[in-house]
């Protein structure tokens, strides 16, 4: 069970890989990332294999690690297929193939007994007729693959809008989801070891802006029993999908208290970044532990905690860093990425002694970050 001297391979070298590597180092674990971007954030704290994800030499190096995980779902399944049987890959290729395709993901969620918003899979233009009516008359068209942070999706309210959106997105296979009158968006992560140990992260409340996560807050303002229900549903996904590693489930909380699963990420998630500074184990350490089979327990902040994303703006405005740094309880996390509009450049975590103080300071923090 000891970790010193182990190596963890990561497919992807972005900011999530960077934070995974930083969480692994205190455990005695070094990380190796396979990533084609020469400016990959993780290059600063991990061995960087500068090559495509399907590069034979790069995959050979990862096969020599103690285990391999991933930092995002847009990795080719062929890369995982080339590794499986040679090194533990957690999560595995079957789970990745399911979670990276929105229609398969939603079908698999329902098969696990987890409710979702109404949806229709659109394989070709012939599927458009009657699709909007089938999901309630208003919907969100999303490409089946790729697309995140608001990309690859359009809101539609008529068949004419649906057909125009289909064309704008390239006429590729997609999913039309019915819009639901949710009260809040929340998320929760679950981690599992190969030996069957299961642990859960905190239930976090999220607010999006322009399709990109803006803020996350813990504890979430939800009715009693909501977190227990979210754990039950996330646990059902983990069991049904044979999870080894960590995955995060995003939920819609309806006015009546019902939870609908929105999307699944087979990895650490933006909404869990606040676990870095609230005390206790972070989501990044939890994924490292789950993948390597180290002792695992539930993780959550010890104090009320929030996060604000730092995203590139069209005008290139920077946050007021001096004021951010002066606000009590803030911790800045930058990704060392070139700025461009809509790109996640970092986040600021905020810790406070109580929820009232946290929400007051969160308003101040948001005012400092464009």
Model description:
The chain has 370 residues and is α+β, with helices and mostly antiparallel strands. The chain has three domains: 83 residues, Rossmann fold, CATH 3.40.50; 61 residues, 2-Layer Sandwich (Dna Ligase, domain 1); 185 residues, ATP-grasp fold, B domain (D-amino Acid Aminotransferase, Chain A, domain 1), CATH 3.30.470.20. The protein has eleven helices and 17 strands. Strands 9, 10, 11, 12, 13, 14, 15, 16 and 17 form a nine-stranded antiparallel β-sheet that branches. A four-stranded parallel β-sheet has the order 3-2-1-4, with helices on both faces. A four-stranded antiparallel β-sheet has the order 5-8-6-7, with helices on both faces. Helix 1 crosses helix 9 and helix 3 runs antiparallel to helix 4. The longest helix has 16 residues. The radius of gyration is 20 Å and the shape is globular.
CATH superfamily of the largest domain: ATP-grasp fold, B domain
DSSP strand content: 25-35%
Mean pLDDT: 95
Oligomer state equals single chain
Percent helix range: 25-40%
Helices and strands, in order, run as: EHEEHEHHHEHEEHEEEEEHEEHEHEEH
Strand tally, please?
Answer: 17
**Sheet bearing the most strands, described?**
9 strands, antiparallel
What is the total number of structural domains? 3
The CATH architecture of the largest domain can be given as 2-Layer Sandwich
Structural class: alpha+beta
Distance between the termini: 45 Å
CATH class of the largest domain: Alpha Beta
| pLDDT < 50 runs, ≥5 residues | none
Instruction: Please count the helical segments.
Output: 11
Give the overall form: globular
Gyration radius from CA atoms, angstroms: 20 Å
CATH domain topology of the largest domain = D-amino Acid Aminotransferase, Chain A, domain 1
């Amino acid at each position: 069970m000891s970790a010193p001297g182990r190596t963890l391979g990561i497919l992807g070298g972005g900011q999530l890989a960077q934070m995974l590597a930083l969480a692994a180092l205190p455990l005695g674990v070094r990380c190796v990332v396979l990533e084609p971007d020469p400016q990959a954030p993780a290059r600063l704290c991990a061995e960087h294999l500068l090559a495509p994800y399907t590069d034979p030499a790069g995959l050979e190096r990862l096969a020599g690690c103690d285990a391999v995980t991933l930092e995002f779902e847009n990795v080719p399944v062929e890369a995982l297929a080339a590794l499986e049987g040679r090194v533990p890959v957690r999560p595995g290729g079957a789970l990745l193939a399911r979670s990276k395709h929105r229609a398969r993901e939603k079908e698999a969620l329902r098969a696990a007994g987890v409710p979702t918003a109404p949806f229709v899979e659109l394989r070709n233009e012939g599927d458009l007729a009657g699709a909007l009516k089938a999901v309630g008359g208003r919907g969100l068209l999303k490409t089946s693959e790729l697309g995140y942070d608001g990309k690859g999706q359009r809101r539609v309210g008529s068949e004419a809008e649906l057909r125009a959106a289909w064309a704008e997105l390239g006429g590729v296979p997609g999913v039309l989801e019915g819009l639901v009158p949710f009260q809040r968006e929340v998320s929760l992560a679950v981690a599992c070891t190969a030996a069957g140990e299961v642990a859960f992260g905190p239930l976090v409340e999220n607010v999006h802006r322009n399709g990109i996560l803006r803020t996350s807050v813990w504890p979430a303002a939800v009715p009693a029993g909501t977190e227990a229900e979210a754990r039950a549903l996330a646990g059902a996904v983990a069991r049904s999908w044979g999870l080894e590693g960590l995955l995060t489930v995003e939920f819609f909380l309806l006015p009546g208290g019902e939870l609908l699963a929105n999307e699944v990420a087979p990895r650490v998630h933006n909404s869990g970044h606040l676990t870095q500074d609230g005390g206790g184990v972070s989501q990044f350490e939890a994924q490292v532990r789950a993948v390597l089979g180290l002792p695992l327990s539930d993780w959550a902040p010890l104090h009320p905690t929030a996060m604000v994303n730092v995203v590139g703006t069209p005008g290139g405005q920077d946050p007021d860093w001096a004021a951010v740094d002066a606000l009590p309880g803030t911790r800045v996390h930058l990704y060392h990425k070139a700025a461009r509009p809509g790109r996640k450049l970092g986040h600021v975590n905020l810790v406070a002694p109580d929820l009232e103080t946290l929400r007051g300071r969160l308003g101040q923090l948001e005012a400092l970050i464009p």
